[in-house]
């Protein structure tokens, strides 16, 4: 092996630096209309790893005076983070956000537009999928895992808080009962007798 050749070749390979503006090096997927939760978490980790997270949280305040070194630094880094955000969006989305004045403004606008928290349309969509998902000829384990993934997404969307332990306990009980109904509703026809026995049991069974 010619080590000199390897050394020359490796020196020409682009290296990731804090000023690299390629969106592919920040997050693996571009933002679309239905992946905001995963995309935003990936972007937070990427920006935090480059010590730029404060530009979307608002901790990096815009200096009040423009004729200073601090203002020039803020302006440059704000533009860099803004470009990272814009370049990590799908083409149909970026044109609606690229003219906002700061990376924090872009981030907040994206959150208000695409965040699933409190998004009734997305909650409805997940709930509909839960009731429509049928086992058909899927193995029982695979059917349960698909239901479970939807339950986890639903919980993240609702993000419900409780004021006391009693409320939390009652909510968990109701949620568990609802999920048993959803699981049983989609079971293959060969489980009809099992479903009837489960529904008649006292105390009511958990998932």
Morphology: elongated
Helix content: 55-70%
**Proportion of residues in β-strands:** under 5%
User: What is the rounded Rg?
Assistant: 25 Å
**Strand-pairing-aware structural class:** mainly alpha
Number of H/I helices: 10
Most strands sheet: none
Overall mean confidence score, pLDDT = 82
Strands, total number = 0
Low-confidence parts lasting 5 or more residues at pLDDT below 50? 1-19
Distance between the termini: 60 Å
SSE order: HHHHHHHHHH
Structural description of this entry:
The protein has ten helices and no strands. With 207 residues, it is mainly alpha-helical. The termini are far apart.
Short description:
The protein is mainly alpha-helical. It is built from 10 helices and no strands. Helices cover 60% and strands 0% of the residues.
Q: Which SSEs are present, and which pair or pack?
A:
Elements: H1 3-11, H2 36-49, H3 54-57, H4 69-87, H5 91-94, H6 103-114, H7 120-132, H8 140-158, H9 165-185, H10 192-200
Helix pairs in contact: 4-6, 7-8
